[in-house]
TrEMBL record:
The chain crosses the membrane at residues 162-182, 202-219, 239-262, 268-290. SUPFAM superfamilies: Sensory domain-like. Keywords: Membrane, Transmembrane, Transmembrane helix. It holds the Pfam family MCP-like_PDC_1. It comes from Campylobacter concisus. This is N-linked glycosylation glycosyltransferase PglG. InterPro entries: Sensor-like_sf.
Length: 298
């Protein structure tokens, strides 16, 4: 259950950060004359009316020392001033990045459950760091706060079902191609297998591998939700898929060259056209790989 909650938080992290940082920017004065504790505490009062299920609100100085008693609806969660939080990630990350940040889930010292902390550095009109405003919210309340609506949730389940059906259909095609490719040469003795059948089986198995790779990626990303932010998974899958298609077409072109050279020399131009198409695909794939590598190096 904990792992599932952390995964849900990872999927909605940017939405959570955007919402809390919006509340900070709307209710806390920053980089303006008159930045003081009273203004921050007044802003905390407004934030507490919008986020009811928070654990604690507190203010740190530029050195990470809590300078006021924390604000909490639960008396047990109120921590007196003087607490040193300079070694906390939500403090030094906010100071280093100079913007509102959201921590990863971590065990809370208040109740032992998982919580996250949003923090924002407060500067005066001379752009000098004065305070760091922080809010602790339990992971459970964070997930409830940004939980999808009824329509969005059910539409997401519908999409997962559709993707699962397509994956099942493509996998059946993949299994059929695999069986057909293997059966063509295991059903015969070695003496009766010719080179053309081996080439055909190689093409079929290569296509089956390409389809299986595609099914695996779609199922992991759209059904299991392993997504990632990650463009590298899509990038690698596309390269493998197109590479498999190129290999299959290259083998087919080689077969046609041999076949037409022996039986119909006047049709060999068709094999040459196919070889040209394969060369164009290879050039396009090479350009794509070069562009991606260049983008990564920037």
């Amino acid at each position: 259950m904990v792992i599932k909650d952390i995964k849900r938080f990872s999927d909605t992290r940017y939405k959570v950060r955007a919402y809390i940082c919006y509340l900070f920017s709307r209710n806390l004065t920053n980089r303006l004359p008159g930045v003081c504790l009273e203004n921050i505490k007044a802003g905390f009062d407004k934030i507490s009316n919008e986020i009811e299920n928070f654990d604690a609100l507190y203010i740190l100085d530029e050195n990470g020392i809590q300078i006021e008693d924390s604000i909490s609806l639960n008396e047990k969660y109120k921590i007196p001033k003087g607490e040193n939080r300079a070694n906390k990630a939500y403090y030094y990350t906010a100071v280093r990045e100079k913007r509102c940040v959201l921590s990863d889930p971590y065990p809370s010292s208040l109740n032992g459950g998982l919580c996250v902390t949003a923090s924002v550095p407060i500067y005066n009109e001379k752009n000098k760091l004065k305070f760091i405003a922080c809010i602790d919210i339990s992971l459970e309340n964070i997930l409830n706060m940004v939980d999808s609506g009824f329509v969005e949730e059910h539409f997401g389940r519908f999409l997962k079902t559709v993707y699962a059906l397509f994956c099942a259909s493509l996998f059946m095609i993949c299994a059929f191609l695999f069986w057909h490719g293997v059966k063509s040469f295991i059903s015969k003795s070695i003496e009766h297998i010719n080179v053309e059948e081996i080439f055909e089986s190689t093409i079929i198995l290569t296509l089956a591998l390409a389809i299986f790779d595609l099914v695996k990626t779609i199922f992991e990303e759209e059904v299991l939700g392993k997504n990632q932010e990650e463009n590298s998974v899509i990038y690698k899958t596309m390269v493998r898929f197109i590479g498999s298609i190129i290999i299959a077409l290259a083998i087919e072109a080689l077969m046609l060259v041999f076949k037409f050279a022996i039986t119909a020399p006047e049709n060999i131009i068709n094999a040459i056209y196919l070889i040209g198409g394969v060369a164009m695909l290879m050039a396009a794939l090479s350009f794509y790989l070069f562009s991606v590598k260049r983008q990564e190096n920037r």
